[in-house]
Amino acid sequence: MPLTTTSTSTADSVVITLVGDLDAAGAPILADDVERALQRDVKRLVLDLNELNYLSSAGLRQLVYAQQKMNDDVQIVLVGANTRVAQTIRLVGFDQSVVMTDQLPE
Hints:
Layout: E1 4-9, E2 13-22, H1 27-38, E3 44-55, H2 57-69, E4 75-79, H3 83-91, E5 99-101
Parallel strand pairs: 2-3, 3-4, 4-5
Antiparallel strand pairs: 1-2
């Protein structure tokens, strides 16, 4: 299923909701959203993965890229990863670099 995204902003955070598959075809879509988030002075980048079905190595590289592009003081939160997506993230140790949770932060 092709990746689609929506973004919402608050005073100090950007929430990007991902729906479908984050693979080589979808990675540029997320890259564009991350670039737009960089234009804002945010303290938190939230990636809502509740409707993300699949995460490929190309998609995982895009998550790492997002983390590298953000300032050190920006917290990255991954929300609602399904079992398969969470296993992929944990397999490479990326869960040690971000916050993983089941619910959107307030």
